[in-house]
Amino acid sequence: MQALYKAWFVDFIHFNGAKPDNWTISSLGEVTNMGAGGDKPKIISAIQTEECPYPIYSNGLSDNGLYGYTNTPKIYDESVTVSARGTIGFVCIRHTPYVPIVRLVTLIPNTEIISAKYLYLYLKQLNITGTGTTQQQLTVPDFRKTEILVPDKETMSAFTDIITPLFSKIWANEKENASLSTTRDTLLPKLMSGELDVSEVNF
């Protein structure tokens, strides 16, 4: 997908090798609703349950920053998160309701202008850095000033339509893998303890 993005919006292969005149340069603050993650929820589960189905994300790299699960989401829209401290610049796209916590910047795109998928791919190719001498961090006021290329609406829609099935396939695979991992984690202790006997099962 990054190669597709580069072909369209860096090399301009589909546009005779040059940026179309009707494309503009805006700031992230102009095309997104940007905010900083909040405190940890009071209710946290280490695993996803019916009572706590919504993921909590932090600035970690492991499992795309998954911290745990809670009962109420804060962000409902498809959006992008960027780590603001530690792993500064780690970019993820979020397509299900979730809760962002401290050290994570959330960007909800104005979908009349750009899509979350375009925003994600744009940010992935940036060298996002922080400020500060003791411990670097990415601040919302500074990050809002970051420039972003904004294609015309027709181009944005066409590109988003092309890459959406690719994202959907990735998310479907991730969901299946998570389901298989849950099944494994449930069955393995029972097999190890002898609670579940499979000696007579024919493979």
Automatic annotation (TrEMBL):
Keywords: DNA-binding, Endonuclease, Hydrolase, Nuclease, Restriction system. One of its GO terms (biological process) is DNA restriction-modification system. GO terms for molecular function: DNA binding; endonuclease activity. Gene3D superfamilies: DNA methylase specificity domains. SUPFAM superfamilies: DNA methylase specificity domain (SSF116734). The keyword DNA-binding applies. This is Restriction endonuclease. Belongs to the type-I restriction system S methylase family. InterPro entries: Restrct_endonuc_typeI_TRD, Restrct_endonuc_typeI_TRD_sf, Type-I_RS_S_subunit. Transmembrane segments: none annotated. Pfam families: Methylase_S.
